[in-house]
Amino acid sequence: MSITPHDERFMAAAIRLSRWHLGRTATNPSVGCVIVRDGVIVGRAVTALSGRPHAETQALAEAGALARGATAYVTLEPCSHHGKTPPCAEALIAYGVARVVISVTDPDPRVSGRGITMLREAGIEVDAGALEAEGRHSLASYLTRQTKNRPYVTLKLAVSADGMIGRKGAGQVAITGPEARAQVQALRAETDAILVGIGTAITDDPLLTVRTPGLESQSPIRIVLDPSLALPLTSKLVETARQVPVIVVASEEVWPLPSDAEGLPPSALPGIFPTGGEIGKRRDPNSPVSDGDGFALRQDVRQGANPDPISPLVGEISGRAEGGASPADMDSRRAALEAAGVEVLYCNPYHPEVLLPALATRGISSLLVEGGAKTARLFLEAGLVDRIQLYQAPVVIGERGIESPLDATDIPSGFAHTSTLMFGEDRLDEYERGL
After folding, report:
1. pLDDT given for residue 379 in this prediction
2. Which of 56, 190, 316, 370 is catalytic?
3. Which of 164, 198, 296, 344 could cross-link to 226 by cystine, CB 3.0-4.6 Å?
4. Coil, strand, or helix at residue 362?
5. What percent of the chain has pLDDT over 90?
6. Is 422 helix (H, G, I), strand (E, B) or coil?
7. Are 320 and 272 in contact, with CB atoms under 8 Å apart?
8. Helix or strand (DSSP H, E) at 246
9. Beta bridge partners of 225
């Protein structure tokens, strides 16, 4: 049986359901499932908070005996392997479902196609590809981590009428209105982690949490690119690190510096960053720099990442890179940050093609880059931004403005304009790369 408009209507309901728990299902994707019998929904569910139980088992339990002979609409191919819970494909078989309609097949090699095969071998009719584009969009973070070994990266920028994102020396500057700022809070709530550079962290002293009443517990992990551990202990980030996790990404210590290294940026020094996935470990300086299994790093290079080292962010380097901190100072800074509850991750901050796979090994599937023009350029130049959210406001910044790294007239190639929304007087244009 082919996909019908009737099928698409119920799959659309399952996709809407899947968005309820975005960013709240740990390493598992947020999947929606709807059980339909005689044109009536008799069971529905979304992957539970923290990732278990899965959507299918919950929806089947709600449907009970009415699941026999029914059709199940699932946004992602039902799992076929035994993990911490039995396979969802087995549950669908046990409940006697007659047909399963799937939006997206699972790229996880433990599942890919096997769930469909298991269902068909049990005599269940299976149709895949219903509203696939919409389904892939709802599963973008999971699919990116599975296929590219890195989080799905969203770059958010708020740009004034004169093309600025802030004012030098002024700290946080309100560019958008309350409606747009509320929308950003919702975006944070469905994202695993949020990232800024050390310049933004010091100048703005942001919290980077979700402030919408009732959603505070959904605040993302907060990440700071901080090569020399310059984040002040009195910052809001450090002071709240025990309530909402904070990770500072520091350059590996290379002591003593080579005699020919004076004046070179950290990214030009040998042995300064770990291989993908080596989190919190210091690489043996005598071992060759590689990408571990030889796959993850090269894969993102094929997707448009810059294979060459990215230069450090001018104005965001402190400590030894500018002739400052000694090894003892660095150890003292690290100890003080860790004592406050901050996690120090040694992975070169200016190589996002290495940092992102390292974050993926921690189960981070989605990353929101919010921190300043320099950090935005870093990810744009590396070709590792998947979605751009560009807010344009009527506010004029004027003198000492910080120029935006992009505007609506110079969106990088490869991005398609997907939507325009208005929030009060502010306009949001969204651009995405294909998955």
Report:
1. 97
2. 56
3. 198
4. coil
5. 69
6. strand
7. no
8. strand 246-250
9. 197, 249
